[in-house]
Write the structure tokens for this entry.
Amino acid sequence: MSEEKHIKSETGEVLKYAEGKPSYSVLPYDALEQVIKVFEYGAGKYGRPFTYRAGIPFSRLFESAMRHLVYWYYWHEDYDPETNCYHLAHAAANCLMLLTYLDKAKMDDRPEEI
């Protein structure tokens, strides 16, 4: 864990720095809210705790992310008709789940190197 540094500003105010800690203030919360809506939809459809925690093969998540990106990019369709959530939010949700599974080899069904 990182050590916090305290420095005084020109006005004498004590400033606190948290080096090495995640800086949540850099996140685009308006966009994250759209991704949360996708996860909420999934929790309603598949139940809580949302089944992604049990594991979904990489191939299914990759294919789903790509479908949403294709609908958004090539067909100029912003919203998924089933969920009324942004296609980009669906793609981001799929990528977040892939990041969650990186250390779970049993979900890694990627093809061998080409």
Notes: Residues 24-107 form one domain. The chain has a mean pLDDT of 87. The first strand starts at residue 4 and ends at 8.
